[in-house]
Design a protein that fits this description.
Number of strands: 0
Organism: Flagellimonas yonaguniensis
Protein name: DUF4890 domain-containing protein
Helix content: over 70%
Oligomer: single chain
Shape: extended
Keywords: Signal
Number of domains: 1
């Protein structure tokens, strides 16, 4: 009888551990509580460490990152306001197409700006770094979709 109770307790505890998904990272979401300037500064410093940027390159990269951070912050606030008011609806397939097309246009523009700022080796390193980051994010989104 004791063995059955022990096995039952172990199975229940394993099941509860497997179901638990309230990890801190999952609840936080993107760091949109920071200002656009703070996000741009942090991203520029990360790139400086990874790519060994000069002062002039740091200034140009900061401007690019600030522009991107302002756009992301604006979109985040807009969607958050819509969700809070209850007016947010899932986008239609045409709207999704337009959003994806605009996103890809922004990425192409960002790539061109970075190509103009960075030298050849830095640019190749940045491309590898950003590709890995995109694939990691894609994997995370797929996992989030599976969880429901």
């Amino acid at each position: 009888m004791k063995r059955i109770a022990v096995v039952l307790v172990m199975l229940i505890s394993i099941g509860m551990t497997a179901q638990r998904q309230d990890d801190q990272r999952m609840r936080k979401g993107p760091k949109m509580d920071m200002t656009a300037e703070e996000m741009a500064t942090l991203q520029t410093k990360r790139m400086t460490l990874a790519l060994d940027l000069t002062e002039a390159q740091q200034d140009k990269v900061y401007d690019i990152q600030l522009e991107n951070a302002k756009f992301r912050k604006e979109k985040w606030d807009e969607i958050k306001a819509l969700k809070d008011s209850g007016e947010w609806k899932k986008p239609t397939s045409e709207e999704r197409y337009e959003m994806e097309n605009a996103r890809l246009d922004r990425q192409i523009a960002m790539q061109e700006k970075m190509r103009n700022v960075l030298d050849e080796n830095q640019y190749e390193t940045w491309k590898k770094f950003s590709y890995r980051k995109k694939m990691h994010g894609k994997k995370k989104m797929q996992e989030r979709g599976r969880r429901g």
